[in-house]
Amino acid sequence: MSLTLYCFGESGHSYKVALQLALSGLDWEPRFVDFFAGETRGPEFRALNVMGECPVLIEGGRVTTQSGVIQLDLARRTGLFQGAPEDRDEVLRWILFDNHKLSAQAGTARFLSNFVPADKRDPAVIAFVRGRLTAALKVLDAHLATRDWLAGDGPTIADFANCSYLYYPEPFGFDRAAYPGIDRWLDRIAALPGWRHPYDLMQRAWRG
Amino acid sequence: MSLTLYCFGESGHSYKVALQLALSGLDWEPRFVDFFAGETRGPEFRALNVMGECPVLIEGGRVTTQSGVIQLDLARRTGLFQGAPEDRDEVLRWILFDNHKLSAQAGTARFLSNFVPADKRDPAVIAFVRGRLTAALKVLDAHLATRDWLAGDGPTIADFANCSYLYYPEPFGFDRAAYPGIDRWLDRIAALPGWRHPYDLMQRAWRG
Q1: pLDDT tens digit string along A2-50?
Q2: What is the DSSP string of B41-60?
Q3: Can you tell me the distance from the alpha carbon of B73 to that of B64, in angstroms, rounded to the nearest whole number?
């Protein structure tokens, strides 16, 4: 496979795939998307992905979008990080949880707290989103209190999905010290051979 | 299969599964969850689903949670509404879109607009969530402008996921007249043999 990933450093959703590509030892290159200049809202990008979102994975003429679909497709084709057959529904369950409850809130909280002009930040909205994020983090932390990985006995794409916003340095309402299960699990993922931080895998788009 | 679905009428996420069960002609019964009395936050429910969410599907001793996992599992086992093999990634793509961008916002907007005491509703928060909902509805409407169904040539579980909050009567920032593609598609789904409204499939929990 020779793969191109449309992505940018601040996109945790892109990082789910970039991290999987890196840990799977695949031949890939990032294609920088100038998110803060509005590239994902433009007609060229919309023609690539009607949903207007990163990541997008290109392989020859094949275009795949939605991080969860890309993750499952790569896992299937490489046989890596898909979990044992009996664990695959559990892998999907935590990918859906992440998309719905965790990254959706983490990405929004981080965006509103850091990438919106200070005079346009609404504390009530930020507090609301952070409250929903906290609820999701508690569920994740409770699950990780007695387990090393989210599904089955080893790392899977469910781990790469759920961790994706949790390595970023910008403040958004997540303090590792408050979630010991998550804290140890993030160290466990970061110790996998080939792990790299999102900002080391993808170019940053924020110039603010 | 003899199936029990933990659900309540106001839960669009439960409706995704209830509608699939009804349209698939399966033998099932709803088990009412008293959401507004806090049942999903209690220890008994958490023991069933650590994520604290409806729906939960029970079949004998087998417990399945997360609507998308249940939908895919039922589709696989019945062979109904899963889409043609070449369309299944597209089915999953729209299920993930729904979980992340559409139902997540629609459910929250509807909850905040209707099921929170009037003196605790924050107009800024509601406007923010409705803004995100509008963006998702526009993506869905554009996709449906030239298609009858979200993926492939017939109805799939992707349609049942994305439509799930859009039949409710309570106001939450969705006006069918503003989205002609969605409007026709909702009529199309409602014309499927066996279709029923969420409040006709599941007992309502709201007593306000």
Answers
A1: 899 999 999 999 999 999 999 999 999 999 999 999 999 999 999 999 9
A2: GSHHHHHH-TT--S-EEEET
A3: 9
For residue B136, the chain A residue with the least C-alpha distance is: A51
A143 touches B at CB < 8 Å: yes
Classify the complex by whether its ipTM is higher than 0.90, answering yes or no: yes
pTM: 0.96
Q: Which domains does chain B have, with CATH numbers?
A: 3-81+195-201 (3.40.30.10), 85-190 (1.20.1050.10)
Q: Which of A41, A76, A96 to mutate to test the interface with B (most CBs of B within 10 A)?
A: A96
CA distance B204 to chain A (A): 23
Q: What is the pLDDT of residues A154-204, one digit of tens each?
A: 999 999 999 999 999 999 999 999 999 999 999 999 999 999 999 999 999
CB under 8 Å to B196, separation ≥6 — which residues? B19, B22
List CB contacts (< 8 A) between A113 and chain B: none
